[in-house]
Amino acid sequence: MRDRIAPSHGLLLVALLVFGSGLRLPGLFTDFWLDEIWTYKIALGMDSIWDVFTEVRHSNNHHLNTIWFYLWGAEPGSANSWIPYRIPAFLAGVGSIAIAWRIGARHGVLEAGLAGGLCAVSYLLVHYSSDARGYAPVIFFGLGSFHLLDGFLRERDGRRALLFQACTVLGFLSHLMYLHVFVASAAWFGWELLRAARRDPASAAVELRDAARLFGVPCVLLAGFYLFDVRQTVIGDGPELDVVEVSVRALSYALGGPPGGLLAARVALATLTVFAGAVVWWQRKGRDGWVFLAVVIFVSPTLSFLLLRPEVFFARYFLLSVAFGLVA
């Protein structure tokens, strides 16, 4: 965010952050709901931070969020005592507006206003910015990864490579759905590698070195994370929901539509059309990020569902698709 910002553009960003914060603040003062209480109970049973990785084997364990619960510790005595547990989600939700704005600002002030504005008012993004779980942070680190990878591919500087690695690790620790972002990042870099090899085969070695700079450390850590933690995770129970119904609800929510009915189906179809059209527009304009966006919005979520066949399926599983669709 340290790049030079014109004063008028800075005012636009401040206005979006203030407005987005105002929409998110009321949610901090509501009572805890089921999954937040579940996380609280898990944290109460921990003896140390390391239990998050070695003892807690449950899908409701969003690692960074559970660590925050454990560190805060004390049992609340009133409704307002729940607020501190939701602070990380709130900050991540507001921070995502800033990153969306910055992604758009690379292309113009109108794009900055639209990207930041849509993320500021999105029902799903507002809702999960007051949910003491890992959903708002994974969106924050996901958007940050896209922004940093875009900058790295332009300038190839080590600072962005290190920050990208940090976002990758923190993204996975926020929520495992960050896998969609990681797969999309690898696909984008792979696309750039193929293009470079076609132009100059000798440059492929340089591209492979940069791939190691970006993905080497995260891949090693991810392998250990999977072997010693993730593969032993037990999926929590939930209501049996129709896949089509949940998908329509999520896509309808993306553009502010209702949860069900004929109108929701129409809004969902409009959402699909708009998101797909945005990705095609990026491709036709020669913006290389279209590969990332196509994978993170459509390809990776679809493949993960077909391969994993989850027993529990919720609209929030589409959060990354919605966030990147709005930015696109």
Distance between the termini: 20 Å
Helix content: over 70%
Structural class: mainly alpha
Alpha-carbon Rg, integer: 20 Å
Largest sheet: none
Give the overall shape. globular
SSE order, as H and E? HHHHHHHHHHHHHHH
- Residue stretches low in confidence (pLDDT < 50, at least 5 long) are none
Number of helices: 15
* SS elements, strand count: 0
What does the average pLDDT come to?
Answer: 91
**Approximately how much beta-strand content do the residues carry?**
under 5%
Describe the structure.
The protein is mostly helical and 328 residues long. Helix content is 70%, strand content 0%. It has helices spanning 7-24, 34-44, 51-54, 63-72, 83-105, 109-121, 123-127, 135-155, 158-174, 179-199, 204-228, 243-254, 262-284, 290-308, 319-327. The two termini are 20 Å apart.
What does the secondary structure layout of this molecule look like, with pairings?
Blueprint: H1 7-24, H2 34-44, H3 51-54, H4 63-72, H5 83-105, H6 109-121, H7 123-127, H8 135-155, H9 158-174, H10 179-199, H11 204-228, H12 243-254, H13 262-284, H14 290-308, H15 319-327
Helix pairs in contact: 1-5, 1-6, 2-4, 5-6, 5-8, 8-9, 8-10, 8-15, 9-11, 10-11, 10-14, 12-13, 13-14, 14-15
Descriptive terms for the model:
328 residues; 15 helices; 0% strand
Summarize the entry for a quick read.
By secondary structure, this protein is mainly alpha-helical. It contains 15 helices and no strands.
